[in-house]
Amino acid sequence: METVAEITPPRTHYLNATYGVKSWLLTTDHKRIALLYLASVTFFFFLGGLFAAGIRIELLTPQGDFVQAETYNRMFTMHGVVMIFLFLIPAIPAVLGNFLVPLMIGARDLAFPRINLLSWYIYTVGALFAVLAILFGGVDTGWTFYTPYSSTYSNGNVILTGLGVFVVGFSSILTGLNFIVTIHTMRAPGLTWFRLPLFIWAHYATSLIMILGTPVIAVTILLLALERLAHVGIFDPALGGDPVLFQHLFWFYSHPAVYIMVLPAMGVISELIANMSRKRIFGYKFVAFASLAIAAFGFLVWGHHMFVSTQSVYAGMVFSFLSYAVAIPSAVKVFNWTATLYKGSISYDTPMLYAFGFIGFFIIGGMTGLFLAALGVDVHVHDTYFVVAHFHYIMVGGTIMGYLGGLHYWWPKITGRLYSEAWARFAALVIFVGFNLTFFPQFLLGYMGMPRRYYAYPPEFQVLNVMSSAGASILGVGYLIPVIYLIWSMRYGPHAPANPWGAAGLEWRTSSPPPTLNFEQVPVVTWEAYEFGDPSENAESRMENRG
Amino acid sequence: MAESHITTHAGLAHHFDDIEQQREAGTLGMWAFLVTEVMFFGGLFLAYILYRSKYPVEFAVASNSLNVTMGFINTLVLICSSLTMALAVYCSQIGKRRPLIVFLLLTMALGTTFLVIKGVEYHEKFVEHHIPVRFPTYEFKWEGHATEGVPVHGESSASVDSGRIEMFFFIYFAMTGVHALHMIIGLGILTTLVLMARRGRFTPEYHSPVELSGLYWHFVDIVWIFLFPLLYLVGAHLH
Amino acid sequence: MQVSMPFSPDQASSYSGQVDSLFAFLCVLTILFGTVITLLIIYFAIKYRRRHKDEIPGQVEGSMKLEVLWSVIPFLIAMGIFVWGANIYYTMYHAPSEALDIYVVAKQWMWKFQHLDGQREINELHVPLGRKVKITMTTEDVIHSFYVPAFRIKLDVVPGKYSTVWFEATKPGRYHLFCAEYCGTGHSRMIGWVEVMEASEYQAWLAGGAAEGSLASSGEKLFQQFACITCHRSDGQGRGPVLQGLFGKEVPLQNGGKVIADESYIRESILSPRAKVVAGFQPIMPTFQGQVSEEQLLQIVAYIKSIGAKAPGEAGVSNPNAPAPAMKPPSQ
Hints:
With about 550 residues, chain A is mainly alpha-helical. Chain A contains 16 helices and no strands. Chain A has one domain: Cytochrome c oxidase-like, subunit I domain (Cytochrome C Oxidase, Chain A, Up-down Bundle), CATH 1.20.210.
């Protein structure tokens, strides 16, 4: 990070334009709503982390001795529900996306500012249901809510938790809808589709999944709740229902939901790689279309969660084939990111460290996805710790690395302050080490045959479990350090210049923090995405050369 | 907040450049929302298709116990309400305030009629014990079938599996219930529009709330156009 | 190619080597791919590190050739893996006809096994070495999953239907049996052992148990107890179809369709008799839902299977000491 001697911040900006609790709770400013979301998802991240800590402590020893089996089952369920629905799905879109989509496209706000605020309230209400469910004792079905366990046998708060997921879903739909309309109708003059930053492309693809997939989980949970309430229903084999139908409906959303979590992170990484190496993304259009391809193919591969669920062998083969198809655009992205670095001007500042980490984790997470899509291997590792390790590499190693990288990269823009680079690099290193130590042993555990969701396990699995728990404690510390120095920077950090990284992108062409309406005047874009230096000058010189 | 921005129209929000951009955003937003609605109902339709193809006989028999006349009247009522809604949109476009309010109120009246008829149907089903629940005080029952659990030989060939009949009613109530909920929300929207229209908020330049609510209302009608034959008429060939 | 990974569980079935080979191949691929990308990133990061803060490097546009190259090559590799994996999968779920049948009923939280000769076991399964074994499973309550890591097999057990998987044990020993689908409080206690025995030991073990007679003879008793026999008469004069010689055959249905009379069809016909009525018969059979347990159902299935090999008219139970081979449908 470049140190600039003395920066005078703008006199009024979105943070000090108005004061008081009301000015925040009733704000329609996308930047303030992003901060409301930031506070909420951070809370739920650490709540989910607490459950994870409970899980890792229990698994230190083979016999169940820390908590009861029932409690353990509730812990891993609440860990999954909180992390997925209340943290991972909203994290990047609702915090970074909310803050940046209008800034990056040169708009004053999202198309529907009040709906944006409404989405935060809906999220809060849904989250409250989930918290109530936790307070009443939680739920023990696993975050997948498989029937008939969830509909008939479980004695946890299935309906209350389901209601929470159902409600939170609508906040996600509204966010997606807002992004789609904003990106379509509110781009600054001259900002054509292929001049958009890849962050915007990724969020566009994500939004498509949000509006197409989320309603399906909503109706699925509605049916589940009705079935549980009325003791009758359509997933109950005793009445001619099919419990596997639930799995189809559930994964029809929940597989694309994986891309809701990881596509925005890929968008962040594209920004970080390009801007921190000051290079236009290699194969811009391929990376942009890869996002859309992932979103589209993502809807066709849900059956790979059900290779051993007694679906037809031929269905299994089709889903396996399609799963390989979806792997290609992901691989293309990795290759293009790597090629972007070639002949760049690569900075080692914190955001770039997260980007490097992301690529490394994503390679392992993505490649183990190929293991799981290979039918013969999946049969063995399905529902074992191999799967657990795989999706944590994608979700934690991918999404959270992307989220933290993005948060560090745009922090000066969001708060107008610089954080301590030394601490930030240290934390990134701790997270990198802790993460690998936590989750890599789980691949081995899975191949050795340890099933997931086991409260007690045969003693031969202990060594690797202890390693994993040790790693988790390091990882936990790694996540706490940024909280401290970021909060510290908000008050004591030096003021940030408008463009501390020398980055391209409209968001760096306004003050840090930006004014309430984002730009002093509506920018007119005459340059391509990722043109470094002074693109307006570049554009002029290009015109001269041509003319 | 928007001190630097000069608003050219009372209905223009601060963050749009002009009313055209705002209208475009609103329309796209409503269409995107309707796409999510299609996906929402899509899950229910999928369940319907799956179980109907699995249990065609039970679905036909159960369907015949529905009141086709009432369903048909309701279809007519909704089609009429779509007409009055379309006329309301037209009036808002040409800036006629009184007819706009009249047509909005007419649409609301028809919508309410639909819900009342639906309520009568639901009550009928309740009395017949066709609501698929199992509570100590109230249980689903299907006449014309041997009492549960006791095998009776030589029963008429028309007798069917009561569990699957129950499945039909579960889907029936889920689908029509969600549809009715959309109608109720629609009535709420129309009420707001009437209040706004009375305050003279709509002009030929600014009437997208009426137009967009119209889109929503037509969508809800179209869903019913699918529901009516799928739920009420699948057993017609058995008569 | 048979490969063993240092951390792989015992290789005790005919699949183990195949699965481990594919797994090893994927590991090599991952390491190769990961190393190349990582080294490239490190090399670029050092070589092209930022020298001074206002540096603007020259720009390189994308390359169509490279994009095509790195889309097509991974795709071809992926297709290879797909075919390899699908091949193993297909074999696992297509049981050979000569396999030894073992029936499983899962419930919260135990595995109940029934052998053809009538032996019953809980959380403990004895199987012979070097013989193909077909497992037919169902559950009394929620979904479970039958998982033997040493065999590399796993299959969900879903209420309301039968699921089948087969294996051939290749190494004597005692191996873990896990429930792999979360099934409630005692999920992690729903574990057991699979004991692979030499053929001779297995015979000795078989001879030791079986107090209640063979599975099929238990089924035959139930067949009389539930009065099935009044309609399903072997002489063809009953109100229901003749069941002798039925198993594995194609049955014409009232609605014009056809169905293979396998375990699932027999189960469905007992619980939902009107679902698929045989052509030429009235749908008069009552349901036995709620009256017959899953274990009894399996016994009846075993009985019907045992008379399946015989022509109509010679009703009887097969020799309990030689488990009845399942009859394949005659090719038409």
